[in-house]
Amino acid sequence: MDLLAYPFMLRAxxxxxxxGLAAPALGIYLVQRRLSLIGDGIGHVALTGVGVGLLTHxxxxxxxxxxxxxxxxxxxxxxxxxxxxxxxxxxLLFYGGIAGGVVLVGLSDDSSNANLMQYLFGSLIxxxxxxxxxxGALGALVLAxxxxxxxxxxxxxxxxxxxxxxxxxxxxxxxxxxxxxxxxVTIAMRTVGLxxxxxxxxxPVAAAQQVTRGFRATMGLAMLIGLLSAxxxxxxxxEIDTAPGATTVLIALVAFLITTAVSALWHRPRxxxxxxxxEVEPPDVVLHNS
Length: 290
Prior knowledge:
Layout: H1 7-32, H2 38-56, H3 60-81, H4 86-107, H5 113-121, H6 129-148, H7 150-158, H8 160-165, H9 170-188, H10 197-209, H11 215-240, H12 244-266
Helix pairs in contact: 1-6, 1-9, 1-10, 1-11, 2-3, 2-4, 2-9, 2-10, 3-4, 3-9, 6-9, 10-11, 10-12, 11-12
């Protein structure tokens, strides 16, 4: 624990905790919509943004945010038009993003492998106070949006047609999810890296789903698992000198295995209980007509 006496480790821990809390809060909606891999696609586009920043000598984080948001909005509009399926749009995002990023980084003055690796796999120990400010502000906005708009987003992710006939602004909500996904991917690239960021959105949610039943409970437990995985990952990586991002993802996967085992034991035949027919669980989310 002596490592936490160093300012760079405290900044690394703070950044990891912010992402560990915000990523699963967003990820539960992506999992519900069967868009678990969209984080990977936007991560590839963010690499193009990093390349633009290095080539133009601007902040790679800022250019990555702008390029990622533009890419996420473009994919959502293409998907909405219906002329290109969601998985094909993601594939185009994957290949175009990674190809553009590699080319632009290669053309920049600072094209060393070490500089590229810190964006691909994360580099928390190089996080500056300014980075923490940006991560904290954007992470708080993402988390607030996911909590404030939870009823509407829940309805959208479960049944888009129902959300539309209920009078919800479906296009706006879809764009909100796209933009917040892009922002989360970009700020998380310093924590777990662009190639692993999707795991922090999906794995805590998958782990929570093994032992919870309602949407609200799943969201809360997923955020807790993400928070603990991120914090533990930073501390463990500092103690054994491993990559913080990869360590965080492995710890989240261990949490998934544990919850899966617990669920399997709990739902053995002798523990199975039948819910009375007249007992109805309260809904997780209620939409109020204005």
